[in-house]
Amino acid sequence: MSFIDRILGRKPEERALANVTVGPISDTIQAQLADFGVGQANYNKKFPDQIATVYTCCKILSDYLARIPIIIVQTQDDGTEVLMKDDFRYDILYYDPNSWQNHYKFWNAGEYVKNLKGNSFAKIVRDGSGRATSLEPISSALFVEYKLVRGQLYYYFFKTKNAAQADNRKSVDVHNSANILHFTNVTKDGVTGISPIQALDKMYNVNWHGWTTLENSYKRGLKSSKAIKYPIMVPGEMAQTEARRQFEMEFGGSSNAEKLVSLPKGAELIDLQMSNRDAEFISTIKFSTEQIGAAFRVPAHMLNILESTKFNSVQEMQRSFLNDEFGSTLKMYEDELNFKLLSLEERKTGLKIRFDIDALLSLDLKTRIDIYDKQIKGGTLSVNEARISEGLSPIENGDKNWMPSNFVYIQDRVSPGVTP
Questions:
Q1: Are 188 and 194 in contact (CB under 8 A)?
Q2: Which of 66, 136, 212, 309 is the 20 to 30 A CA-CA neighbour of 125?
Q3: Residue ranges covered by each domain of the chain
């Protein structure tokens, strides 16, 4: 039991009723709190999720992963799977990985960072017998390097954020890879992952400047299609500047749209022609949005781009995304969890950790009924199995498998003209 659990109690109701006096914050904690900050207002390569499309892609992927339960199952000789709720790893995978994060927050944050940085890490905390007791996230900003020594892989991490900022190589912790969960995007060296950010750095800059230009255009009334023209020598340059400033303040911006315009004395409005490049401006932003989505393997329909979709329904789109796009991500996570949390002997016996994706593959009622009907009539599913899948109680004689009586084995069919 952790220190927090001993003080506050394991159950939430115990925590709420506990009378705990909090003492002064230590200098170390105070320094860490003072160092907390948010991203910069202007675009910075260190904060690529300032781009709306990048943030949306990362959020979609992290939300999907965090919604999927992680379970431990034992495969039987007949191919069926038995849920292993009594396994000591079940609680930290299905419920709470550690004392301050639930399942959703832990996996949501890990997947978000993985997509931004290419890598996310978590430390496997073990007890004296080597059993995993919790999973604790490690900031990817603290990662220094990895080394392969005598067939063993070791990870090097800075101990603190300040050490990382100062690049103090003396303040480094070394961890055997057996105690580090390392989740990656596509990798070149088989260890560290590559973020889509690296591949599309120029595209992010284009997208950022594009939306900034569009924002400034809206602030000035969407576009500068007009100009103020004065007769020669009327009025002076200083007066023209002041008149233009006053005009922009009173009539510029989206809040002043459609107001009756009052021109400065002696001035007139003239139209400006829009170039082909300017006319294609918003289309360029849309194109870069599609490219960013493709790099993250997020389907266009999830980014509200539905013109070119090949599917007839949203459910088909979601199913294709889970099977074709997100399937490789789930495989990477499952392999890493099985490799680091299960022994080779356990895996050989059929024990495995996997994502229960049935929670995300929900179908409409009509489709589910059609599937159950075909499986029950085909003898592959019993009535009670279908009822239990729908959350209904089993019925008497519902465990039997049915098959139409006019079905026979091919070998038992009588050939024409042959007497049986």
A1: yes
A2: 66
A3: 1-37, 45-214+315-362, 363-420
In terms of Cβ atoms closer than 10 Å to its own Cβ (0-12, 13-18, 19+), residue 70 is buried
Q: Is the pTM of this model over 0.85?
A: no
- Per-residue pLDDT tens for 312-369? 666 666 677 777 778 889 999 999 999 999 999 999 999 999 998 876 666 566 777 8
52: part of which helix (H) or strand (E)? helix 52-67
Selection from 58, 141, 128, 135 nearest residue 103 by Cα: 135
> Partners of 75 in the beta sheet?
81
Helix 52-67 vs helix 103-117: crossing angle, to nearest 10: 140
- Helix axis angle, 52-67 relative to 327-341, nearest 10°? 50
Residue pair 68/357 in contact (Cβ under 8 Å)? The answer is yes
Q: How far is CA 111 from CA 60, 69, 171, 387, in A?
A: 10, 14, 27, 35
**Residues 31-41: b if buried by 16+ CB within 10 A, e if exposed:** eeeeeeeeeee
What's at 101, amino acid-wise?
A: Q
The CA-CA-CA angle for residues 119, 121, 123, to 5°, reads 170
How far apart are the C-alpha atoms of 83 and 70, rounded to whole Å?
A: 11
- Identify the segments of the chain with pLDDT beneath 70: 1-50, 201-237, 239-240, 243-244, 247-248, 250-288, 306-318, 359-365, 406-420
Say if residues 75 and 352 touch (Cβ distance below 8 Å).
yes
- Which class would CATH give 45-214+315-362? alpha beta
Residue with tokens 């080394």: 147
